[in-house]
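Entry: Lon N-terminal domain-containing protein
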Amino acid sequence: MSDLGSSAVAELPLFPLSTVLLPGGRMGLRIFERRYLDLIRDTMRNQQSFGIVWLAEGGAELLKSGERQATLAQIGTEAHIADWDQLPDGLLGVVVEGRRRFQLASARQDDTGLYIGEVSWLTEQEDVVLPPRSTELHDLLRQLGEHPHVQRLGMQLNVETAGALANSLAQLLPLPAADAYQILGIDAPLARLDALHDILDALSS
């Protein structure tokens, strides 16, 4: 897990999800709650970012009920809006792209129920070239890139480094959220790729 240094604490609005966003990854969101419509509007208007944090099992129900605060994961990802459109059901659809990882120091809710987090940006290790053993994973990413849904996301899949390959695959493959979060929390790029390989081996066995 993450044990690197981090920068000074900053304040960031949070969008808790039952899925995980990784740096360089993209995902589509359907926006319908007023607090998140306002968040997306303000983000686009001010060209700012927000944070996506994982909700562990049962967290989504707590978030909806409003009875008490849901437990948010300690590590999240800064999200930028890459694209948006009105969906066929009339809801706002946005595509977000993951940027920097952060450590969540604390979180509070404002009057609308929106979480505001105090975060520190994690210091990233320099990525490394793909090792020879990653050929199969690289081919898998290429195959995923041919899927229409992945093409609509517009992710950059021409990756030649270990960390970027691990992030891209963990984002696109239907992994359990806990496994994707495990990948998110690993600092060393080669260790991240090895962990993904182990996860895929375990799922296929």
